[in-house]
Design a protein that fits this description.
Blueprint lengths: L15 H10 L1 H4 L4 H12 L9 E5 L5 H9 L4 E6 L2 H7 L7 E4 L12 E7 L8 H11 E12 L5 H8 L13 H9 L4 E14 L2 H11 L15 H11 L8 E13 L3
Parallel strand pairs: 1-2, 1-4, 2-3, 4-5
Antiparallel strand pairs: 5-7, 6-7
Helix pairs in contact: 1-5, 7-10
């Protein structure tokens, strides 16, 4: 039987402590390169059920708090919680406000009471959770009846241009692994939450060169965190090979980087 909580690839997902440390280090640079994150989060907001008016909302994996502030403005009379596993992100977000409380915590074991939230909003965070079934179980526990979980994540096919280009250079793991979309479909169907919508949509960014892409991934804290990644510095010959291989993907607007984005809206039955 396939374990749907993990990608169908050897090595699984990165250790969450490494994820937390990487994003903590990236807190100061994150917002300067977060074009994708803001576009995806904005799209997820547009998918919230019409007339949403939560008395208490949770920004799960809040990062620098950009969408905590957006949610705080939209639901100005509500109590807002911003939660992240990366202390560095919380330290960056807290002074900027938006949420009522900023909480260090793990999406797989939420430090919140049962039936305490009307809305859980999570944009581009849960792809780092190895046990996504636990994320869904915790969301069901924490949501009030009729409450909504809206999440955006990434699935297989993300950064395929970079992955395939590296495959022509060596057999090492250079690009983060993500679940298959089918795993999201199955896990959501089995969660006990009602699936209002669930779809996969590509989002393509363009870069003048490979260095611009890899620099952005590092500034986001989303560079290669996988088990099996190469240690030490990458030699010039391999970098040259990567650049030459990626050039075959070049389009009019530059080198494409495709993100396969999962958008989901689920409701806890009343």
């Amino acid at each position: 039987m396939t374990d749907l909580s993990l990608p169908n690839l050897p090595g699984g997902l990165p250790d969450k402590r490494q994820v937390a440390a990487s994003f903590s280090r990236a807190a100061a640079s994150y917002d300067s390169v977060a074009e994708l994150q803001r576009a995806v989060g904005g799209e997820l907001l547009s998918r919230l059920p019409a007339g949403s008016a939560p008395s208490r909302w949770l920004d799960l994996g809040c990062g620098t708090g950009y969408f905590s502030r957006v949610l705080g403005e939209r639901f100005s009379t509500s109590e807002g919680l911003a939660l992240d596993i990366a202390e560095g992100m919380l330290n960056h977000a807290r002074p900027q406000g938006g949420a009522t409380h900023f909480v260090a915590g793990d999406a797989e074991r939420l430090p919140l009471q049962a039936q305490s939230c009307d809305l859980i909003f999570s944009s581009l965070a849960v792809q780092w959770c190895a046990d996504f079934a636990s994320v869904l179980s915790e969301a069901q526990r924490v949501l009030k009846p009729g409450g909504v979980l809206a999440f955006a994540s990434l699935c297989v096919g993300t950064l395929y241009e970079l992955r395939d280009s590296w495959c022509q250079v060596d057999g090492l793991v250079h690009v983060n692994r993500f679940r298959e979309f089918g795993a999201y479909e199955q896990l959501c169907a089995d969660s006990g939450l009602k699936v209002i919508s669930l779809e996969n949509a590509p989002h393509v960014l363009h870069y003048p060169d490979v260095r611009s892409l890899t620099h952005e991934l590092k500034a986001l804290g989303a560079h290669n965190l996988n088990p099996g990644r190469p240690g030490g510095l990458t030699g010039r010959a391999r970098i040259r090979g990567l650049v030459d291989a990626y050039e075959h993907y070049r389009k009019e607007h530059g080198l494409p980087a495709t993100y396969q984005v999962v958008y989901a809206v689920l409701e806890k039955p009343r």
